[in-house]
User: Which sequence fits this backbone?
């Protein structure tokens, strides 16, 4: 049964059993309507209520306004986290171009379209940059996608964490070493808040990015693998996004929290078309254009309401469980679980090596290696012992612990639905295994 299995997979990931049970019912017969949730219209009152409930629960948990001057829009889209690699850079570059267009119109006057185009073209060539903090495999992929779409000349890798760490991810360079573009020239600064493959998490919101205003490069964070797992100030960000399949639900839906005032800066496609000689792919496909999705309450095209329903149940259960503590309550729990695992790994340092540096250890994806014993060089990993670790773990129903294929080793993902008893079982296994060999 589900209770017997402890699953530490990195995504898709476990969901709370009551949520899975409730959604299983809804798939067959939603609230005794005789129809399943995947069979009804995404434009029905039922679907609209689920959408509204999801937004409301998320705004409670993260404590941000859905209305008023500093409002944020919550969008639900498809295309996964990967889709947002493309959508985020296209949106931010578009907003940058529109700001420059408005400024040119203000300076040159109405009706001077050709001159406006000329000036914006020149500014793009001379000034436009998008900044990436490359701290792991996913931010690297996002920066590569940006280069593919808009051209590598516009990409500024403000930091590449591999450079000061023997060519490997695992440590985030200090902020004073980042080479950020002047914020007025930058269209955005992007990072991945939790690097799922490398086990690296941004320890806190970067000081140097605090207080960015409407004219500054937009702050964008990929929170696919640490969504609703710690407190943050939404107002520090222009865009937060995450695929649902780790902390929130099942694959097939992506959540975007975006500052509403930015959406008003979305440029007209025909203006961008006239700049395609310098900006080849800055126009997003319509399903990836935030302003269009926001205007249509995420129902521009068919939204997978069943997937949204699961995320809604998860969000509502977090609201209920942690009450006035909101997401800080989940953060405390996540921290306690992660500490238990890291403390054990550190205690048995002759058996285990935690891959990332202490300063950047992820609370969500705990990546470690198993050291050689006896004859082996103590600085190297023993893949045979790692296999033995995984095999003996599986015998105890501790599943999903294999590291990402690109880096190997062991990875214990500690997402929100991984329970404390599961973590305790893993810890017991770590202690027991350390004594072998
Ligand atoms: N960002 C992060 C941090 C991820 O962990 C992942 C997937 N594991 C992605 C982006 C890509 O997400 P998707 O597979 O939903 O496109």
Assistant:
């Amino acid at each position: 049964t589900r209770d017997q299995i402890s699953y530490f997979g990195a995504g898709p990931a476990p969901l709370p059993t009551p949520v899975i049970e409730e959604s299983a019912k809804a798939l067959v017969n939603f609230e005794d309507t005789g129809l399943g949730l995947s069979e009804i219209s995404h434009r029905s009152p039922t679907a609209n209520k689920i959408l509204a409930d999801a937004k409301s629960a998320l705004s409670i948990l993260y404590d941000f306004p859905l209305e008023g001057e500093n409002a944020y829009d919550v969008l639900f889209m498809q295309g996964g986290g990967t889709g947002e690699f493309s959508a985020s850079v296209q949106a931010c570059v578009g907003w940058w171009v529109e700001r420059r267009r408005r400024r040119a119109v203000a300076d040159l006057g109405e009706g001077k379209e050709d001159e406006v185009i000329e000036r914006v073209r020149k500014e793009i060539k001379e000034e436009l940059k998008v900044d990436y903090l490359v701290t792991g495999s996913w931010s690297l992929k996002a920066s590569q996608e940006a280069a593919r779409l808009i051209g590598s000349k516009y990409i500024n890798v403000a930091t590449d964490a591999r450079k000061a760490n023997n060519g490997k991810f695992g440590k985030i360079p200090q902020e004073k070493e980042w080479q950020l573009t002047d914020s007025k020239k930058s269209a955005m600064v992007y990072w991945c808040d939790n690097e799922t493959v490398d086990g690296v998490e941004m320890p806190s919101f970067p000081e140097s990015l605090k207080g960015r205003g409407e004219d500054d490069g937009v702050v964008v964070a990929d929170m696919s693998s640490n969504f609703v797992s710690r407190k943050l100030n939404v107002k520090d960000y222009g865009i937060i996004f995450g695929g649902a399949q780790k902390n929130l639900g099942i694959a097939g839906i992506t959540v975007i929290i975006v500052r509403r005032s930015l959406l008003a800066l979305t440029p007209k496609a025909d203006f961008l078309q006239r700049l395609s000689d310098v900006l080849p792919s800055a126009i997003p496909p319509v399903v990836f254009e935030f302003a269009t999705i926001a205007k249509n309450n995420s129902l521009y095209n068919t939204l997978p309401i069943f997937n949204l329903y699961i995320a809604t149940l998860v969000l509502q259960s977090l609201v209920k469980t942690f009450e006035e503590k909101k997401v800080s309550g989940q953060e405390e729990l996540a921290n306690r679980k992660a500490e238990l695992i890291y403390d054990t790994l550190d205690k048995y340092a002759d058996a285990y090596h935690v891959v990332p540096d202490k300063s950047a250890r992820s609370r969500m994806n705990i990546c470690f290696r198993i050291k050689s014993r006896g004859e082996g060089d103590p600085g190297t990993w023993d893949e045979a012992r790692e296999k033995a670790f995984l095999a003996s773990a599986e015998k105890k129903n501790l599943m999903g612990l294999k590291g990402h294929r690109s880096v190997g080793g062991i990875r214990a993902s500690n997402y929100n639905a991984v329970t404390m008893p599961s973590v305790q079982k893993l810890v017991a296994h770590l202690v027991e295994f350390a004594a072998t060999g």
